[in-house]
Amino acid sequence: MKILVLNGPNLNLLGTREPEIYGYETLADIETEMNACATQLADDIEIEFLQSNSEAELITWIGATRGKYDGIIINPAALTHTSLGLYDALKAVADAVPAVEVHLSNTHAREEIRHKSLTAPACIGQLMGFQGFGYTLALRALVKKLSD
Ligand code: DQA
Questions:
Q1: The domain that contains 126 carries what CATH number?
Q2: For the segment 27-81, what is each residue's pLDDT rounded down to a tens digit?
Q3: Element housing 7 (H / E)
Q4: What atom of ligand 1 comes closest to residue 105's alpha carbon?
Q5: Residue 82: phi, psi to the nearest 5?
């Protein structure tokens, strides 16, 4: 089982970026935890972990997942609230590569502009508010769904 984990703009700054909101874990810490979780879940789960500040790059990566990956975990970051292009890309592969959306913070408890996700309707589920731990929760949920 191959899972692509995508992280959007500014998530490369995790660890020092508003830690009271996003926590002190870096993206590298989260990747390590996800790999440990994957090993626990099964011996055939492979995770590829990517981050980009570019909407175009994220769209290109999603569009290339068909036939290569079994699922996507995505934190689109600020693009969650703005990107019809990311929604379209997720929709375009959703029949073959289901996605789970994850957010470190509870966006519903923040500014109103963060309450709406354009990308979530293209995903099978969404997890938010558990900081870095949410990524492994999303992995568990996606693997369960793919195994059912
Ligand atoms: C975020 C929430 C977004 O509103 C914000 O723009 C981010 C991070 C989160 O993980 O909590 O960059 O996606």
A1: 3.40.50.9100
A2: 999 999 999 999 999 999 999 999 999 999 999 999 999 999 999 999 999 999 9
A3: strand 2-7
A4: 11
A5: -135, -20
